[in-house]
Amino acid sequence: MTLTCSPDIDHAPRLELNQRGMKPSQGKRGLTIGCYFPGAVRVEVLHLQSGKTVCELPKLNDAGEFFGAVGRRFKPFRYQFRVRYPEQSIEVIDPYQFAPELDSEQQFMFAEGTLEQAYHYLGANWHCQDGIEGVRFALWAPNAKRVNLIGDFNHWDDDAHPMLHCGDSGIWQLFIPRLTANQHYQFHILGDDNLWRKKADPYAKVMALPPFNAGRVPAKPPYQWQDQKWLRQRGEGNSWQEPLSIYELHAGSWKRDEHNRHLNFDQLADSLIPYVKQMGFTHIQLMPIMAHPFTGSWGYQPIGLYSLDPRLGTQDQLKGFIDRCHQQGIGVLLDWVIAHFPKDSYGLERFDGTALYEHHDPSKAHHPDWDTALFNYGRNEVRSYLLSNAFYWLKEFHFDGLRLDAVSSMLYLDYSRGPDEWQPNIDGGNEHLEAVSLLKTLNQRCHFNFPGVLMVAEESTSWSGVSHGIEQGGLGFGYKWNMGWMNDCLRYLNQDPLYRCHHHGLMNFAMVYAYSENFILAISHDEVVHGKGAMLSKIPGDPWQQFATLRAFYGFMWAHPGKKLLFMGQEFGQWQEWHHDGQLDWPLLGFDTHQGVQRFVSELNALYKATPALYELDHSDEGFRWLDCDDAERSLFSFVRYDSQGNAVVAIINMTPQVHTDFRLGVPQAGLYTTLINSDHRRFGGSGVTSDVPHPSEAIEAHQQPHSIRITVPPLGCVYLARESAL
């Protein structure tokens, strides 16, 4: 299974491809049959239904080619070969007696760029042709001069199974009966440039373990889902008005076995699902799980977009994992990478000797940041490939949404390019119009076909309307990561508490644009790698201050408008950066301080889900009001969150170690106010300087509110309060 290209050599057997299978005799009545079985000493033709011997084929040469007339037969019939070798004999149904089957409607939609389930049409698919079970292999390679199917089933013999070219469609196809699941295969392609390339199937549903690069015939029996209730409820809901707290994780490093090997999804399900449920997260977001040869890419340089990374188990194990999540009330999102693809020689680049999947224009074909290739978003067949891949994961695996990586790099022609390295679009701008068109189509079709699905963009620029409807001029995503909020907050946390007063605006600036998009507040894997430090280690001060600040920040984050996302390990205060080659530092949970952070996040999630004021109006200015955003001198932030019924939660966050006693805090209504959660409570590892005694309001104006309460504001702490009853 070499990965390198080789010069053009004569791979054609002496028997021409059009002489394989059963054909009318040239110039006279009758039929001929040609076949190729190297090492065979004798080949007989048997009637498939009756099993009777029809004839024996003469051997043409020592290469294993047999060809001859079928005596006294004039009408084609189904047959098989009995192939005799020196030590054994086998029976083989000839693939070349089956004409290619192309569905004209699917072919048209594929070429039009609108085919949504091309994976049923291309790749290796189980198929029944004329009552005979087998696998139909189909490949789009319009500029190839020849395509040979090689694999375990033909001993990787180049001459065994040359594929049949299906006219102007650009499709090569071959139906092979009686295959079994898990057999490896590749395509050996003679390109337009007269070079031979061994390529993995772009539509392979199963890939071999690295360093091998072959596809595998998928398993046959369909998975029996048990999540119909979940899917129905998902379609009836409105995620914008529901709690959304996402636990992002890398499936290969959340936990490992005793030999530091990946857990498969069956094993993950046993421990991960109870943990996520205990922690109160509503969703899991999996970093890319598609087949990728380089583990250090974390899945962001996938070769097999349709294949689960074989290190993580089987398709059915992934489906079982998602099914079990749904039965426990947990949604599952998938990180999806279509912004670029790697240049490995067995992958998509120069697939048939031409720029097929990538753009032919070099300024649109190369990603300068990652030295990867860019999809040709304007080519219809590529659009069908990508659109179908989204449908594949959403339909076949029941994922609840897709998070699109690096959307910014798709939107701009000049992304990471100098002035002389890009060409304007037809309107003279820097917008990548073909990519914009694809994203709109993708979002529209996914939302229509999969009710309640979440489409999320990681987009770091000021592009307008990323999460607005297409009819409003937007891209049609449901959500956008708030990268500005994340960067500002992490800069603020990095400041010594003594100097935070000079950076106060970093924490409140996001409210200036909070309703311009449907935002997710994301503390993702990107923030705890490459020397950036884990969340805890970003914070200056002694350990007590670091833990207290982290809890206070999480309290600020969960009260702030916008849905939530937290990367694994940060929920219990991991000290070290995340690394993909090992598991999280679970032994840290033997320490009270780390248990305290974990307990706080768990209780914060439980409170969040039970309190509509914290999520229902995330995307409306009716759901938020500052009490005081300008108390820079004391580094205090206070605000009110409302639900649609006017119920309020008051939040105050103190980002210095200074305790503020007898602090007067404005409240929107008269009443008795109780503490919902306090990050400084002793059970979370705090100082416990405040009590849980209810606070009666007084008719004294404060923070532009007609009533106020007197409280003690804890050091480096966050407190939520709500009115328990009227006075």
TrEMBL record:
Keywords, ordered alphabetically: Carbohydrate metabolism, Glycogen biosynthesis, Glycogen metabolism, Glycosyltransferase, Transferase
EC number: 2.4.1.18
Enzyme active site: D405 (nucleophile), E458 (proton donor)
Alphabetical list of InterPro entries matching this protein: A-amylase/branching_C, Branching_enzy, GH, GH13_cat_dom, GlgB, GlgB_N_E_set_prok, Glyco_hydro_13_N, Glyco_hydro_b
Domain Glycosyl hydrolase family 13 catalytic, residue spans: 248-592
One example of a Gene Ontology biological process annotation: glycogen biosynthetic process
Highest taxon in the source lineage: Bacteria
Pathway linked to the protein: Glycan biosynthesis; glycogen biosynthesis
Catalytic reaction list: Transfers a segment of a (1->4)-alpha-D-glucan chain to a primary hydroxy group in a similar glucan chain
Cellular component GO terms held in the UniProt record: cytosol
One of the record's GO molecular function terms: hydrolase activity, hydrolyzing O-glycosyl compounds
One Pfam family, short name: Alpha-amylase
Record-stated family: Belongs to the glycosyl hydrolase 13 family. GlgB subfamily.
Described function: Catalyzes the formation of the alpha-1,6-glucosidic linkages in glycogen by scission of a 1,4-alpha-linked oligosaccharide from growing alpha-1,4-glucan chains and the subsequent attachment of the oligosaccharide to the alpha-1,6 position.
NCBIfam families, per the entry: branching_enzym, PRK05402.1, PRK12313.1
Oligomeric and partner information: Monomer.
PANTHER family, per the entry: 1,4-ALPHA-GLUCAN-BRANCHING ENZYME
Name recorded for this polypeptide: 1,4-alpha-glucan branching enzyme GlgB
Taxonomic classification: Bacteria, Pseudomonadati, Pseudomonadota, Gammaproteobacteria, Alteromonadales
